[in-house]
Write a structure and sequence with these properties.
- By secondary structure, the chain is mostly helical.
- The chain contains 19 helices and 2 strands.
- It has a two-stranded parallel ribbon with strand order 1-2.
- α4 packs parallel to α15 and α6 packs antiparallel against α7.
- The mean pLDDT is about 90.
Length: about 450
């Protein structure tokens, strides 16, 4: 069953990168190329012709290097496989902890039901490195809790991992945070700082290792300020505190949001029960972790996938508390019922092909669709001095294919453009229904091409 689950999970990633035109993988590849060929890390809005000198914290330069090396050796097929492997390792780390707490057959239905959430972000993006390292930290801490790894080995692994993570993705701060929760959990259990000083030392050393990055103190501060005062907020940055999907038209069509809402209710209800039974602090690590990641997902919808991985850990912990009280015969019956449900659910996926579960899409395969390059090839026919007007999503596509001969007007980094530029120029064009704003801004930039 575990092997079949991994196979089913893998199928969801074996599709061609048809999202290449509207995600920022192109800019990451160009970042990596510049680091390795010119020996410099981009720290300004280097690619755009509109605000080229604005300072930008390049918190994911290391991801660009990895992506560039893989792409140079294996092309986009290699990037697809790398992305799949990182997700599979994350799932492996989580499942290896889960099966120690509860029989896999019992947790399998939850994994299957949560697939649309786990697969909410299947794109080739640096955030997958954060999934990987988060799962790896949970895995190592579980090994340490069960005396399978010594403190010295744990310290070496986590410090090295944290330095790498800090230079790969902005969510590196989750590493020290998880270790801090683990240290507090042990302190609450032992009620003695002497028995937990190693864990707090681990937190401090891993935390200090975050300063080993290309941007120093600013790089450490970036995760906390990156969203401040943003005028242009991408859809993936938006919160979930709205009722837009709860209407008569949508209520008849299943959406992954309903799964997320159900998981939210489960977390809140189980936390309340633990509080009533005075067991909330006994299970502090799992309770605090899941509540944080639940709020993290509600505050920014791009974090739903990360929450879902943590939810598998939390739900297995909660179920193990109650299953310990059940007789073995009842647990065996529950396992049989879970297996039967899982078999029928998998049959339902492959026979009825539900939209959010069926993994084999029209673009089944790996690599990139051949038509992805056509617009860039056509664009290269224009003069290198052309001033391009493009929308927010397309910028990284232009950077990868046409830079430095041609530069984008804007690209998918809202923090890389000033408030005045976004408010008074980009939004004026996007939101103004008539041509007044367009003509005024065109007189400034003299656009030759629209992409």
């Amino acid at each position: 069953m575990i092997i079949f689950l991994f196979a089913l999970f893998s199928l969801s990633f074996i599709h061609k990168t048809s999202f290449f035109t509207n995600v920022d993988i192109g800019r990451h590849l160009k970042n990596g190329e510049i680091v390795l060929n010119e020996y410099k890390i981009i720290k300004t809005n280097y690619y755009s012709y509109t605000e080229a000198n604005k300072e930008v914290i390049n918190h994911h330069w290391g991801s660009g290097v990895i992506y560039y090396l893989v792409h140079k050796a294996f092309g986009f097929k290699g990037l697809s496989i790398l992305n799949l492997l990182l997700y599979l390792f994350t799932l492996f780390f989580i499942i290896s902890i889960v099966v120690k707490k509860i029989p896999f057959a019992i947790i399998l239905p939850i994994v299957l039901i949560s697939l649309p959430l786990l697969l909410a972000r299947p794109y080739i993006r640096p955030e997958v490195f954060s999934y990987f390292f988060l799962g790896f930290y949970f895995f190592l801490l579980d090994k340490y809790r069960n005396n399978k790894i010594r403190f010295k080995g744990l310290l070496i692994f986590l410090v090295i991992s944290q330095i790498i993570w800090t230079n790969l993705h902005v969510l590196f701060v989750l590493g020290p945070f998880v270790i801090l929760l683990y240290a507090i959990d042990k302190l609450l259990k032992t009620k003695s700082f002497n028995f937990t000083k190693n864990e707090f030392i681990l937190f401090l050393l891993v935390g200090f290792s975050c300063f080993i990055n290309a941007n120093g103190f600013k790089g450490v501060l970036e995760p906390f300020v990156i969203r401040q005062n943003l005028v242009l907020i991408p859809q993936e940055f938006r919160h979930l505190f709205n009722l837009e999907h709860y209407n008569f038209q949508n209520i008849q069509e299943f959406t992954p949001r309903y799964i997320f809402d159900f998981f939210t209710i489960f977390v809140l209800a189980s936390s309340f029960l633990l509080l009533l039974k005075k067991q909330l602090f006994v299970n502090f690590f799992y309770s605090a972790t899941i509540i944080f990641f639940l709020l993290f997902a509600w505050m920014m919808n791009r974090n739903i996938a990360m929450f879902s991985f943590v939810f598998l850990l939390y739900s297995s912990q909660m179920l193990s508390i109650y299953f310990k009280k059940f007789p073995d015969k009842l647990i065996s019956k529950v396992q049989i019922a879970s297996i039967i449900f899982s078999v029928f659910f998998i049959a339902y996926i492959f026979i009825l092909k539900p939209r959010y579960y069926y993994p084999i899409k029209s673009n089944f395969g790996i690599g990139i669709n051949k038509d992805e390059y056509k617009a860039a090839k056509h664009l290269s026919n224009f003069k290198t001095t052309s001033h391009i007007f493009n929308n927010f999503d397309i910028g990284a596509y232009i950077i990868f294919n046409n830079f430095p001969a041609q530069k984008p007007f804007i690209d998918p980094r809202p923090e890389a453009y000033s408030d005045s530029f976004v408010r008074n120029i980009y939004w004026k064009i996007k939101q103004n229904k008539n041509q007044i704003a367009w003509k005024k801004i065109d007189s400034i930039y003299n656009f030759n091409v629209i992409v």
